[in-house]
Design goal:
Strand 15, helix 19 and strand 16 (555-561) form a beta-alpha-beta unit. By secondary structure, the chain is an alpha/beta fold. The protein has 2 domains: 50-401, Glycoside hydrolase, family 3, N-terminal domain (TIM Barrel), CATH 3.20.20; 434-615, Glycoside hydrolase family 3 C-terminal domain (Rossmann fold). The longest helix has 22 residues, at 5-26. The strands form 4 sheets. Strands 12-17-16-15-13-14 form a 6-stranded mixed β-sheet. The protein has helices spanning 5-26, 50-60, 63-69, 75-78, 83-87, 106-120, 151-157, 160-175, 206-211, 214-220, 267-283, 314-325, 345-355, 366-378, 384-400, 420-433, 462-466, 487-492, 540-552, 589-595, and strands at residues 71-74, 92-95, 130-133, 181-182, 236-240, 262-265, 289-292, 296-299, 308-309, 330-331, 360-361, 435-439, 451-455, 497-501, 513-519, 555-561, 577-580. The protein is built from 20 helices and 17 strands.
Length: 639
């Protein structure tokens, strides 16, 4: 583990101030002299401490250059006019979900990012660009990347070392294609399974989520020097804080019901449940960036409290996160998050900057953001000291990432993308994530010699198996978007006699075992909220498959491929074995590994399993706690 960030933060701040004092006499900030007009400036000297380099560069920057560093645009908005990167001195570009180069290959990505980087290096001070991407279960925008189980499944493994290895692979595959920054991991605590982002959480218990913050070490390494290596990226703990704890029905974003809603809570609960993972992320893992949530907080222990959006919450962003907890990285706003704040655009910008947000994800509003923030500073409504603090934090990350020395993509690890070695780790993660919830009469493990009848669309659908945030933002059903192995293919690799019928219409006669694969189709964020076209109840087609197969074949096994528990209370008695498979990603053979006993079932539920949808929210520690399966439940089998 690294030194506590609280100590590093104060040391870094002091070093920047001291270095700035020296720099101010040597290089007047107002002179803005061209870099080429003097000896190699201090900020380009890799042997100097980062704090000194930051102070030197900051002292040379104009207000326009500083504001540019605080601005992040979407590649789709600048791709046809890349000169914007140079003209606005942009600090960052991102790929949103599904925003990819036309050539969605490792080389296509690296060429794209390097092209943008060349525009950034054409600026007066040659400050390199930071490129961000949602690598939330592998480098999931890239076709051919290793696609791991979503976090809810990784939480079920109870294996922090494996999670660290998963994210190290993700970092390696991501940086080999250009991006140096991942908007991951999500360290939210999912307290209501009706939330469409439940699968992005490691679980409902903050202690489990804290254990899984080893993901940050996988992304960043365990030493500040690791960040500059080609197998690491800057991590982002998200979404600060309470986004998994919002009250159903409080969202005001479109048709969402839970996502981007209001966390109605008292301080003690908020600190123990919602804030705890961020303390660990900062003080034990020195996370480099944090993304504030779209959600709001309303205090029940403060009379007259009204909901305050997190991007406007100076108390939590600055007083608590930066000062009390000691976060010395930078805050990046979520996608157009400031547009949800009250007031006109200038008020929104001013409010968020003064609250403590350092970089702004303004995908299609970068020019407007730059001009607006500049005007707010010139009018004295945003202090220059706040701008300098934000830019110092951003520059610190760029220096630690080694971008000033090596701005272009190191492609040396490109050959490992989707490699057998990486897929083997993903397969292990799938196997360890499987939770055996029922196993009557020793139905599992199966035997390769048995005649196996497989039913259900989700048995042979990679898109459903991977869920949202896979190639596209919402994900998509089907087997054409990315390479991988479906659960059916995994079974067929082991068993000699397998019959597959998606709708269970094929004859069942002669089968020894029926395997019914039920579950969800892909969704992401509030699109997946229950009440927004979704439900926790299983589909009529899935119920029909269970009824037919389990009614006709002596031994019946049901697998649930979903991002959260589904209501199976009335179906449970019809099946001999029941397995929660979560969203396993590209390696469906990992499911077959435990079905046939190649590996034992060891997974434990990362959330409580409700008896009915109306029972949500239900969490460990509740009064009158009576789930269908409790948090932490999971049967084991021998190898």
């Amino acid at each position: 583990m690294r030194t506590l960030s609280r100590r590093r933060s104060s040391r870094f701040a002091g070093a920047v101030l001291a270095a700035a004092a020296l720099t101010a006499t040597a290089v007047p900030a107002a002179s803005a002299a061209p870099v080429t007009a003097e000896r190699t400036p201090a900020y380009l000297n890799a042997r100097l401490p980062v704090a000194q380099r930051v102070a030197d560069l900051l002292g040379r920057m104009t207000l326009a250059e500083k504001v540019g560093q605080m601005t992040q645009a979407e590649r789709g908005a600048i791709d046809s006019s890349q000169q914007q990167i140079t003209d606005l001195a942009l600090g960052s570009v991102l790929s949103g979900g599904g925003s990819t180069p036309a050539d969605n290959t490792p080389a296509g990505w690296a060429d794209m990012v390097d092209g943008y980087q060349s525009r950034a290096l054409a600026t007066r001070l040659h400050i390199p660009l930071l490129y961000g991407v949602d690598s939330v279960h592998g480098h999931n925008n890239l076709v051919g990347a290793t696609i791991f189980p979503h976090n809810i499944g990784l939480g079920a493994t109870r294996d922090p070392r494996l999670v660290r290895e998963v994210e190290h692979i993700t970092a390696t595959e991501t940086r080999a294609t250009g991006p140096q920054w991942a908007f991951a991991p999500c360290v939210c605590v999912a307290r209501d399974d009706r939330w469409g982002r439940t699968y992005e959480s490691f679980g409902e218990d903050p202690k489990l989520v804290q254990q899984m913050t080893t993901a940050i070490d996988g992304f960043q390494g365990t030493s500040p020097k690791d960040l500059a290596k080609p197998d690491h990226v800057l991590a982002t703990a998200k979404h600060f804080a309470g986004d998994g704890d919002t009250t159903y029905g409080t969202s005001t974003s479109g048709t969402y019901t839970t996502d981007q809603g209001v966390t109605i809570t008292d301080w003690q609960h908020f600190a123990q449940v919602d804030l705890a993972p961020y303390v660990t992320a900062v003080q034990q893992h020195d996370v480099g960036s944090i993304m504030p949530s779209f959600s709001s907080v309303q205090w029940t222990d403060r009379p007259g409290s009204t909901p305050v959006k997190m991007t406007a919450n100076k108390e939590l962003l600055t007083d608590v996160l930066k000062r009390k907890i000691g976060f010395d990285g930078f805050l990046i706003s979520d996608w157009e998050a400031i547009h949800q704040l009250p007031g006109d655009y200038a008020t929104q910008v001013r409010t968020a900057v003064n609250a403590g947000v350092d970089m702004f994800m303004e995908p299609y509003s970068a020019p407007q953001f730059v001009s607006t923030l500049t005007a707010e500073v010139q009018a004295g409504r945003v202090p220059v000291s706040r701008i300098d603090d934000a830019v110092s934090r951003i520059l610190k990350a760029k220096f630690e990432l080694g971008l000033f020395e090596h701005p272009y993509t190191d492609r040396s690890n490109a050959g490992t993308i989707g490699s057998p070695q990486h897929r083997a780790v993903a397969r292990q993660a799938v196997a360890e994530s499987q939770v055996l919830l029922k196993n009557s009469g020793g139905a599992l493990p199966l035997k390769p010699s048995q005649k196996i009848y497989v039913a259900g669309v989700n048995a042979d659908d990679l898109g459903n198996q991977a869920g949202g945030w896979t190639v596209t933002w919402q994900g998509q059903s089907g087997n054409t978007s990315f390479p991988g192995t479906t659960i059916l293919q995994g079974i067929q690799q082991v068993a000699r006699n397998v019959t597959y019928s998606a709708d269970a219409s094929a004859p069942t006669a002669g089968a020894d075992v029926g395997v019914v694969v039920i579950g969800e189709t892909p969704y992401a964020e509030g699109v997946g909220d229950v009440g927004n076209g979704h439900t926790l109840n299983i589909s009529a087609a899935d119920r029909a498959n269970i009824d037919k197969v389990c009614g006709a074949i002596k031994t019946c096994v049901v697998l649930d491929v979903a991002g959260r528990p589904q209501i199976v209370t009335d179906e449970l008695g019809k099946m001999d074995a029941f397995v929660m498979s979560w969203l396993p990603g590209s390696e469906g053979a990992g499911v077959a590994d435990v079905l046939f006993g190649k590996k034992p079932f060891t997974g434990k539920l990362s959330v409580s399993w409700p008896r009915s949808e109306a029972q949500e929210p239900i969490n460990i520690g509740d009064r009158n706690y009576d789930p269908l399966f409790p948090y932490g439940y999971g049967l084991t089998t021998r190898r």
